[in-house]
Amino acid sequence: MSLEDLNNKLVSASENGQKISPILAEGVKNYLIDIDGTICDDIPNEEPERMLTAEVYPDALITLNKWYDEGHVICFFTSRTEDHREYTETWLKKHGFKYHGMVMGKPRGGNYHWIDNHLVKATRYRGKFTDLVDKEVTIQVFDDEHHE
User: Fold this and answer.
1) What does the pLDDT look like over 58-74, one tens digit per residue?
2) 3-state secondary structure labels for all residues of the chain
3) pLDDT at residue number 109
4) pLDDT per residue over 10-65, tens digit each?
5) 102 with 85: CB under 8 angstroms?
6) Smallest Cα–Cα separation from 98: which of 127, 128, 63, 123?
């Protein structure tokens, strides 16, 4: 089911008084992607005039648009504020990024933990976008053995 079909289904359900969340099809990934320092030059919020001229990372553009075309959900999750939304949307459009949404106002810093009842995978950007590969790593998890 395409995202457009899913949205139409949700609108129809909403008009009938139902409150439902989108359900990702099997194999579809929901990517939350940072902007500054991940898909382009690292522009601090204190220098918004630079946001419109940030250099795009070409491998990010190619990879994210490929994932979008494969049917995955692309949502930018950025520390840019709501005041920067228009600049950001203009820049994304200018460079041809395909995406479904954007969440502004992510706290700045580097110690993010996402806690969910669904499987969450995180990938730290280290200078090059490529297809993702499987790799065994150590992660932090809740301690199942120490219940009160």
Assistant:
1) 999 999 999 999 999 99
2) CCHHHHHHHHHHHHHCCCCCCCCCCCCCCEEEECCECCCECCCCCCCHHHHHHCCECHHHHHHHHHHHHCCCEEEEECCCCHHHHHHHHHHHHHHCCCCCEEECCCCCCCCCCCCCCCCCCCCCCCCCCCCCCCCCCCCCCCCCCCCC
3) 76
4) 455 556 666 677 788 888 999 999 999 999 999 999 999 999 999 999 999 999 99
5) yes
6) 63
Q: How far apart are CA 16 and CA 137, in angstroms?
A: 46
Q: What is the CA radius of gyration of the chain?
A: 18
pLDDT at position 121 is: 80
How far apart are the C-alpha atoms of 43 and 48, rounded to whole Å?
A: 7
The closest of 49, 52, 53, 43 to 78, measured between CA atoms, is: 43
